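Final report, closing paragraph on structural work. Over the funding period we assembled a curated collection of sequence-structure pairs, and we close with a single example.
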Amino acid sequence: MLPKKEKEMIIVVFSSRNETLYFAQAIRSRGIFCQIVNTPREAGQACGISVKLSQTFLQSAKEILASKPFRAFVGVFRINSVGQRTSLEKLI
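Its predicted structure, as stored:
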């Protein structure tokens, strides 16, 4: 039997720390909980930190990304965890 997933989580990845922090502030201003986390290597070239939030808020993340010219945007990834193993699936 597969382990039960708590919540589907996503990370939003940028190649700029400033844009990462700006995006986190924009998400929080909508009342959405997010965390600043270390970016997994699988996400490619990034600044080292990313914004992690529930996949429930993917549409809000898309709206924020579309509203500003994020030049350092790398992508949005779903975090797939099974036991100790974690992989990323690129959504955007």
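Confidence is low (pLDDT under 50) at residues 1-6. The longest strand covers residues 73-82. We thank the funder for supporting this effort.
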